[in-house]
Automatic annotation (TrEMBL):
Residues 108-119 have a biased composition (Basic and acidic residues). Residues 117-152 form the EF-hand domain. Residues 1-24 form the signal peptide. The keyword Secreted applies. Residues 97-119 are annotated as: Disordered. It is found in: Secreted. Keywords: Disulfide bond, Glycoprotein, Secreted, Signal. Its main location: secreted. This is EF-hand domain-containing protein.
Amino acid sequence: MKHSLTFAMISLMAGLALAPAAQAEGEGPEGGKRGGHLMMLDLDGDGRITRAEVDGAREARFARADADGSGALSLEEMTARAVADATQRAEQRFARLDADGDGQVSKAEMEDKRSERMEKRAMRMFDRVDANDDDVLDEEEIARAMKHHGKKQKDGTEPKAE
């Protein structure tokens, strides 16, 4: 059980560690920042991500979690970092959802944002499938989309040829 909890915390930490960092400037999909979480790795702001920047971000992420500077993370340090990151994400999401600024997120505000995101996602998907940009999905485009949909298996590998 202790190992399961430790593994769960490591997984949580890895997933949450990237979330609170600053993102690149400019609007991107769904009103978010262009490049999303990936561009926060662009430490020098040149619009490119080098292996050195990825390594530097990993080291900085570890250092932020290593509160006592011991060079090793305790479960308490990992938990504290995960909670801090989750809290920051929740605060950011709350600010986006609270459209009327009353300090509460109503069901209507939550649904408005969800509908807006779903509409933008649907339009991006349509644009990807519409290969000839004529604003019509023909049989060939639909067939190609269906063929490519779900190509990778859950483990990330390509399916075997039939």
